DNA sequence: TATAATAACTTACATAAAGTAAGTAACTAA
DNA sequence: TTAGTTACTTACTTTATGTAAGTTATTATA
């Protein structure tokens, strides 16, 4: 190995390269959401979603808030650091609209 | 499932969420490179690199060129579609420099 | 009082993806 | 004839993810 890649860049792309992470952040950009909503919106399994949300919380990207109602309501939302992914997501959107044809997907 | 996410966006983020894909594209942005160079630059295993390069060729993102020297030289480079990832990579770089501290990385 | 419902997980197990290291092909140099 | 070089491929192991059932906590319903 001979890695000359900036470690900060590498860390960032490692976060985004984790399966589901990008979609979770993208989904939360539309506002705070519950576990089950994210799960069905992006089609991730509960097992992995649970794992990812913990990781993202540890990274300071996602915030978890408990509302002691019945049944309990838990909302996930983006921190400032999480919201800062917006320009990047816009770039992905822009790229996809320019370079991907609807018919050639899948 | 209830997916209301734009399929083009989803496809784009699926490409980027594949482990190593982003780093391979980033690495090739600095110019055409050989298999072994990419392998050691980003630290991916040959087995997976081989797989990813084929995928990226099929997506029209990477181009493979054979030079019949001895030993044979094969160069991988980005197509126009591949180069178009540059602004996106710049955004990742920008984000990482703003939001990641060097000391907190691994 | 017992049962059911709901949300957010967690656990156990199965399948898929990625890592490791040895092997192959094609060619030249020693 | 043997060794070296590059770009892979193959067989096998380890890790990640998917699936589906189970758990916890709380209230509503029969």
Automatic annotation (TrEMBL), chains A, B:
<protein>
    <submittedName>
        <fullName>Transcriptional regulator</fullName>
    </submittedName>
</protein>
<keyword id="KW-0238">DNA-binding</keyword>
<feature type="domain" description="HTH hxlR-type">
    <location>
        <begin position="6"/>
        <end position="104"/>
    </location>
</feature>
<dbReference type="InterPro" id="IPR002577">
    <property type="entry name" value="HTH_HxlR"/>
</dbReference>
<dbReference type="InterPro" id="IPR036390">
    <property type="entry name" value="WH_DNA-bd_sf"/>
</dbReference>
<dbReference type="InterPro" id="IPR011991">
    <property type="entry name" value="ArsR-like_HTH"/>
</dbReference>
<dbReference type="GO" id="GO:0003677">
    <property type="term" value="F:DNA binding"/>
</dbReference>
<dbReference type="InterPro" id="IPR036388">
    <property type="entry name" value="WH-like_DNA-bd_sf"/>
</dbReference>
<dbReference type="Pfam" id="PF01638">
    <property type="entry name" value="HxlR"/>
</dbReference>
<keyword id="KW-0805">Transcription regulation</keyword>
<keyword id="KW-0804">Transcription</keyword>
